[in-house]
Amino acid sequence: MFRNEDSGCRAGEVAAVHQNGVGLVDNPILVLVYFHKALRAEFAELRRVAVEALESGTHGVELLVMLRKRFEFLKLFYKYHSAAEDEVIFLALDELVKNVVSTYSLEHKSIDDLFDSVFNCLDVLDKEGKDNYKTFQGLLFCIGTIQTTIHQHMLKEEEQVFPLLMQQFSSSEQASLVWQFMCSVPVTLLEDFLPWMISVLSPDEKIEVSRSMKEIVPKEKLLQEVVISWIDNEVPATGGCTSIREQGAQFNNGLGTHRETSIQHSFDGIRLWHDAIRKDLQEVLIELYQIRISSEFSDLPSLVVDLNFLADTLIFYSKALSNIIYPLWNELAKDFYSARYAQYLDERKIEGLQRLLYYKSEKTIPLRSYVEKLYEELMSFASWIDENLSLIEAEVFPLIRMNCSRDMQQWLLYTCLKMMPLGLIKCVITWFSAHLSGNEAKSALKINLEGPLARNPLASLLCHWLRISYSGKSSIEKFKEDLREMFNSRCLLLCKQIKEDSELSHLPLDDKHHNTSSCRKPQKSTDTENKFPTFSCSSTKRNRKCDTSYTSGMNFHVSFPQILNIPSYLSQNPEVSSIVSSFTILDTNPMDHIIYFHKALKKDLEYLVLVSAKLAENVGFLMDFHRCFHLLQFFYQIHSDSEDNIAFPALEAKGNFQNISHSYSIDHKLEGEQFIKVSNILDEISKLRTYSDADVDASGHQQPKYGQLCFKLHAMCISMHKVLCDHIDHEEIELLPLYREYFSVEEQMKITGNMLGRMRAESLQELIPWLVASLTPEEQQAMMSLWRKATKNTKFDEWLGEWWEGGLFTAVEKVEEKQTNTLPTYTGDAVEVVLKYMVEEGAHDNGGIIHDRSTGISQNEISGCKRDPCGVPSATEENHRLKEDHCKDNYTVEADKVRGKEITGNSDLDETGKLVQASQHLKEERDLPILSQEELVAAIRRVHNDSKLDLASKARIIQSLHTSRSSAAQPKVNSETTRSRNEENVSGQSASYRDPLKLTFGCKHYKRNCKLVSACCNKLYTCRLCHDDVEDHIMDRKDTAKMMCMKCLIIQPVGATCSTPSCQKLSMAKYYCSICKFFDDEREIYHCPYCNLCRLGKGLGIDYFHCMNCNACMSRSLSVHICREKCFEDFCPICHEFIFSSSLPVKALQCGHLMHSSCFQAYTCSYYTCPICSKSLGDMQVYFGMLDALLAEEKIPIEHAGQTQVILCNDCEKRGDSPFHWLYHKCPHCGSFNTRVV
What we know:
- The protein is mainly alpha-helical.
- 57% of the residues lie in helices and 5% in strands.
- The strands form 7 sheets. It has a 4-stranded antiparallel β-sheet. It has a 3-stranded antiparallel β-sheet with strand order 16-15-17, with no helix packed on it. The protein has a two-stranded antiparallel sheet with strand order 1-2.
């Protein structure tokens, strides 16, 4: 009932990877995909067991022990799997394909933390000692979350990483990578995991894996037998989690007194092992002392390699002692138990040395200081090792020798070796054999060959390696070379610094170097340089397949993850609070506005988790959850699309960051599927709620199912919260710093504008209140300031002021901008405009008594009292109600403060406010003189000379001035008479038809079911174009406040539907814009918030986008175009109509200028140059070729022969000399005839 959707989805993922019939034999790297399948199956099984236990209420101690055991196995293997990818697979891929693997390495760390949450729940359950439903429920949620997270991570790898691996690496190279991974995992873990993995495969897949293993494993008979024996092993009943103690149960009969000669004691060989460790540590210490006193660092990398090898060997030896030897010794000791064994070779003691060996300081520590610290640390470490090994030999081994048979001792040694990876075992055997004498080597071989493990394939392989090493077939030089290759990644930066310091010779002791006596002869710089080992970023060399390639970095990842450093470009995790605390942060890093969006997303995700937990108990939360979820889904899709289509391509276009965002785009796709799954669960719950509450309670059947669905919904919300938050955090860690570092403020602002330019007005009306509700007032101010700067060339401010009730953001803008030259948007009628310029002229004539217009007051503030603001759409109101339970009240308080400041803050108006009030008073009285022709020309001239006006404002004002005389000459009308006339029948109060035969309401321009009452003349017209065709003035559609339904003929406030009950909410048109008061019942239309006009098309982000620089809506096919600032706010050079508000199609010329398409067709019949800049309108090579032919046949008069003329080319804008001609002059630079004589 609570089964996770992830376990069943994409059942064919593994099969899908095998594209075009390609199998494992051809692409051995796909074995890792089968590892993924096994992990999926195990997590699904664990969740099934946990669900059944929760349903039955039987989650006792045995179940908890089983879960802990299996999760410990999963955690350990997943750690090695992740380390293998980071240190082997990803490093190799990163050499060939950059910017792919860093994201997956970040995800490995977050997934590792999820395992800790599972164990925390298990610890709580263990301490309680009784069944606890809530805690076990939390454990189930943790299991579901880790299952979902790992599932998505593996799907991403299968979609992006594995195809690249198959493409970039040959079959043999892939096999080498897989084998290197297998040789770096402890044997005891690998021999459990392989049969466990095979158990979840189909018969055909098992055969394919067995065949591929023969290609992956080197062609060594014993080695092949070992791997095949692991694959053919039966999987333990506990899922591959058999403990070492359980494996040794067969040797229980060996316990007891069993004395034999000392040479037969298997544990005597460990003394030789201890002696070899002591000897090598002392030798390294002596050599390090020589380097310390001589300051000759050329041999330092090889010493660090030796120390790394010894440290890794001691780490695994420590694990073997802790898991095998010490527990047995504790059982044998009984009465004289001592806790001192816990201190013997504690691997935590090795951490200090490992920190120094993992040299990644990049010149933060001088080499001499580094050697000093390393020498001191090694002296202390060698002393501690010698002391602890002596204690083990004195207290632990004698007791085991006395109580264990030879076979038992042999099994213990064999099991201790299996704690190491296979590759390290071979290195250790080679190293150890070099310290053995002839008799010691023969004794070791004899013991192993005669024991019960002699027939064991792995034991036989180990004896074979020991025989080869001792016989000299494997030289110590070859062993040293292999060690350098295996440990290269941990010495790479050290070697680099030594080389740089040697070349630059700037070490502090370089001057003393030749005067210091030492045992080593100083080397010349060239010799020193030649002695440096050559290290690559990947420990796997192409076209080479090692027999047992061991990667030390994997075990370093597992044993000491805290020592590893994140790459430099991922080193800082910018907390949201530190980034958004400063108001000016978006001024320098505009792309950080994404963090604000992330903050809002996280708040809503937390709210969904909180509310989903209460749904089962309180159905009243269902509607709020439903609304919040679908709003969040809608906003997340907007955010994902803007990143995928705008932000990520801009980042990858930089050249150095290809592929860096691909994994995040996959995240967007997979997380979209997560939203769909949650939506499906919501639909199921909604269907159940169609029953009344009484029926549900009475039947007793619907209520349990409702609770089950609510539980499932809550689990999915927790998983979705974790997945999305990790995605957001990784994006802020990895991607946002790149925008800050490699993009200028202008480039970031352009990206921000492009992201906004694909958001529809309806989307912004939903988005802005939602986003603002999650931000502090300072953050609101910063966000809107950024959006205003990104849209400074557009009408976004005008749209925002008309749409947002109370003009909240208009007031917020004044806090940030403080501009004194803010220009009003002239939307008043002709009388107001004429008054404006007549009063201004009088002010200049009277010595400038009236203030200049540049006082900072905007038209939104002027018209805010005379025009009712447009209310927030109903969906936004629902969003506000939705946020009541989890959003702070500071947003509402701040909004009220801003509104109060806007309404009462008249002190800023000063004399300008008086001017506006006087103008409105005169306007109402209509007490205006009729302008003469001279006064009209003078007013138009003042408009043209006003540099503070943009072209659009000039066009509207001049058009209003032309109609001002007739408007002013109209008879005066008392305001009371006007109001009474509004209540009576208005002229034109009858229906009009688009097609009288079909009785379709409308006019020749539009199909609609209403007429508009023009605010200017109080007459009814079907549209503004019908009005303008008849009247001598233009109609401002935005001032329209009333309409008439053509069905009931009743005048009413303008709206989308008829308010008369008899019409039953008859729709006035399919499309209605509350800002433009525009209706249309035929075409696809959208309102652009940046043009603040209604335009033809499906909408922004669908088939159009708005270019913030050009201030124009353009087809998405024109995403790359010649961009000119406010190029659409100009007049057509042919017909002189204002292009921005024109309804005719526009043609963009190659030079960047615009004209109507119809004008272009007529113009190009006679001309081929731009009427503005005179550049050629297209490719004129054919025409210019004709002119060349014409001039070649034409003869120049003798008196002009040889003369030249200086010309200027309109196309290339270069000067040059051209042969004399009375009409045609060819440019000597570009060959164009579009020239003129200078």
